[in-house]
Amino acid sequence: MEFRDQEIAIEIGKQGELRHRKVSYPLLVGTYHKITLPGYVFFYDLKGDIKYIRGLGRDWPHPSEWLKRSKGGCWVYYFSGRYTEDLFDYLGEYYLPCFAYQSNSLWRVDPFAEESVQRALAAWEEVPGLLEQHLGKKGPSPIRDLVLRIGERGREALQESARELLRINGDEVRVLPPDTRHVDYEVLPLFIAEGCLYDCAFCRVKSGRSFQSRSRENVRGQLRELENLLGEEKANLNAVFLGQDDALHAGTELVTDAAEMALQSLRGSPLGDRYVFLFGSVDSLLAAEDKLWRNLAELPCRTYVNIGLESGDQDTLDRLGKPLRAELVREAFSRMLDLNECYANLEVSANFLLDPGLPSDHWAELERLLREVAVRPRSKGSIYLSPMRGGRKREHMRLFQPLKMRSRLPLYLYLIQRL
Ligand code: SF4
């Protein structure tokens, strides 16, 4: 339904794309409501929560850039590169996500410091009042209902939803697996375990807890509560993140059951394709039974397991405070290659660290691993290099680019992104 009055346009239940695609313009996936006012276009999800904002004025930084509010309540600015940056080469995506929180980005762009972006972030809160003032009792009742609903979903209601999500999961999602970029980080977060096996000194995202699986009842209860929290908006999801730091270690039964339960819960979504994402570790990858891989490969979805390898060089691992033997890291790397070869629906990816201060043997070993694979380049099993603390892009690129050119596996940067 559409309603127009002078400079105002309200469109209810607009159908966007049914699949996530990698394009260099703002792509809206799923069903949403759109409100166009002088200067801005606002997009709302099916609950009436603000989701995207794009400025229409000449002061807006770029016509194909926009703001998105994540499920965890963080604003992300999508930076296009503005014709000077080949972002796709670095990230595997056309946009650089910019955050209002500290991350490990190498780009010094800070859209949140721009006045027009700050104005947009303030403008969405004025939308219900402006519409009330302008429309009064005009417009058909679905339009008035929407105006009422978005009025109820103001800043406080959104903060309350973010708190509720935290309560349900029992922890915040401090970092999402890099492969969730394939669904623009739109995932249902279902925690099946918390904590991890190592307590790496370099890690900025660890919970500090030792590993513990959740019970099946806990996972089921969480899912029920997530369904309630999402309401109608669940229809716009086709992916699940099985949290948290080493969900793979939760074992064959729990991983399989949780993935099945979550996929079942998302069955009503009209979106095409289904995805399951999770993190694993060297130990959980090497200990996982063949049955787990077979189960994951048989799910009606594409499953991505991301493993933190960090380095294949012992001296580097020791300096990082990662309590692992380099032989095991190399064994895990080979296992990853085998699994990617074996199962069409399953993709195991790996992370290594990127920092100019790391020893030369780290780079030599990484290059050896990236070239160790079969002679032909492979399209599966991305390798992500994670800048340790951000810093100078040029220094990092001096290390990244030669590896990218020589790698027989897809190689990208990995930025720390919360839910
Ligand atoms: S890098 Fe992974 S395994 Fe190490 S402390 Fe951080 S979350 Fe845990």
Structure description:
This protein folds into two domains: 2-154, no CATH class; 170-413, pyruvate-formate lyase- activating enzyme (Alpha-Beta Horseshoe), CATH 3.80.30.20. 35% of the residues lie in helices and 21% in strands. Helix 3 runs antiparallel to helix 4 (141-152) and helix 5 (155-169) packs antiparallel against helix 6 (216-230). The model has no long low-confidence stretch (mean pLDDT 94). With 419 residues, the protein is α/β, with parallel strands linked by helices. It has an eight-stranded antiparallel β-sheet with strand order 1-2-3-4-5-6-7-8, with helices on one face. Strands 9-12-13-14-15-16-17 form a seven-stranded parallel β-sheet. It has helices at 87-91, 115-123, 127-135, 141-152, 155-169, 216-230, 252-265, 282-287, 290-298, 314-320, 326-342, 360-372, 393-406, and strands spanning 2-5, 8-15, 31-37, 40-44, 50-55, 66-69, 75-79, 96-99, 188-191, 193-194, 212-213, 239-243, 275-280, 302-310, 346-354, 383-387, 411-413. The chain is globular, with a radius of gyration of 22 Å. The longest helix has 17 residues, at 326-342. It has 13 helices and 17 strands. Bound molecules: iron/sulfur cluster (SF4). Iron/sulfur cluster is lined by residues 196, 198-200, 203, 205-206, 245, 281, 308.
